[in-house]
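Please, structure for the following, as tokens.
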Amino acid sequence: MKTFAPTLLLTGAFAGLAFAQSEPARRLAGPTAFSDWRQDAPGTWRKIAPPDLPAPLASEPTAARSQVVARPDGAAPKTLEGFSAEVFASGLEGPRVIRHAPNGDIFVTESVGGRVRVFRLEDGKVAPAASHVFASELERPYGIAFYPPGPEPRFVYIGTPTKLLRFPYRNGDLKASGPAETIASLPGADGGHWTRDLVFSRDGKTLYVAVGSKTNVAEGHPRPATQEVAQLEAARGVGASAGVEFERAVVLAIDPDGKNRRTVANGLRNCSGLQLRPKTDELWCVVNERDMLGDDLPPDYATHVTEGGFYGWPWWYIGAHEDPRHAGERPDLAGKITTPDVLFQPHSAPLGIAFYEGGQFSADYQGDAFVALHGSWNRAKRTGYKIVRLSFKNGVPTGEYQDFLTGFVVDDTRVWGRPVDVAVARDGSLLVSEDGNGTIWRVSYSGATKPVQTSVK
């Protein structure tokens, strides 16, 4: 395992400072919202509703993986007027989930590097003075959660593809003071979606764990017999899957000690990001939907997770839309599907979500959410590769989302950044991880103190 040490660089040309260009606030709805990266611009709003969906296979499924290239000289994300984006840290190996500890330290999982890294922020500073490896030699670490929630946690929980781990922790610890304890095993040893995000309920009694599906759409999965369905759903809820998909495409609830495991909701193909809406127990999830139904099917989405809810996978999608690959297999589910709250352009690949309750952005951002879109791989016209803002009114999503941070795409085949997660720092700025070039960006309102870049070499 390689050891990485931080190198500090002064802001300037290296920081990648990018102020927004003034763009008209466009609003795209219905068919016009199904565009590509060329239509992306900070300030643009989109709204997609279930009636807007095309027929299955209206376009030929396309495999069009992007080529990730080094960040071109002078390239930086574009954001809204009045904001700036600068490099917070670079040289990371697959940075994924970002969480801040109660004392303000920034924890980041490096899934490729197999480690959890901590960035220490000094009082009054907005940039890290140094970084430290909290834990290493882990199996693709992803989700991070501190327990108990509140100012004095005793453990930090880490989600890996096959295990739920926890390390002893006290505020200020820069290295784990003891070995990892395995709290629970997780399905995933046989492959498939591997991200395992985590979040505790506000009272700390329940840990929510997201587990994605093994397959795209349960190809070859036999239709269960009526008696099998009844038994499975009695134990695991409506729409529960069996066989290789047992306990997958779900959100699980587990006690902090690993006991009393249960299914919260089914049919969430790959919930890669979990969060609670601030000051509530409302659980939110961003979901990567299925592939190979065409460029514009089905939309990815963000949604609050209904206890006992079924979100369609693999038999149905976005409400009562039947997947033709499973036609006629589960007609009993047609009226039992929960429709998601906010639909994204198909194949955008949302991975992380964070609600804004910081003090740096203007008041109209309070209660809204930011989502990281990792970017398409099977859409002829590339989409995603940006951070978007979800609009909420009185705690209720409007269904609209706005381009907030764009500019990671070079052309129709090349990109230099793939956003993964978003987190609100204690100073109210927004931290964005991207694993294409191993960078964390800091988005701040202009006029805030500019950070020093930390390059992890």
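The radius of gyration is 21 Å. The longest helix spans residues 226-236.
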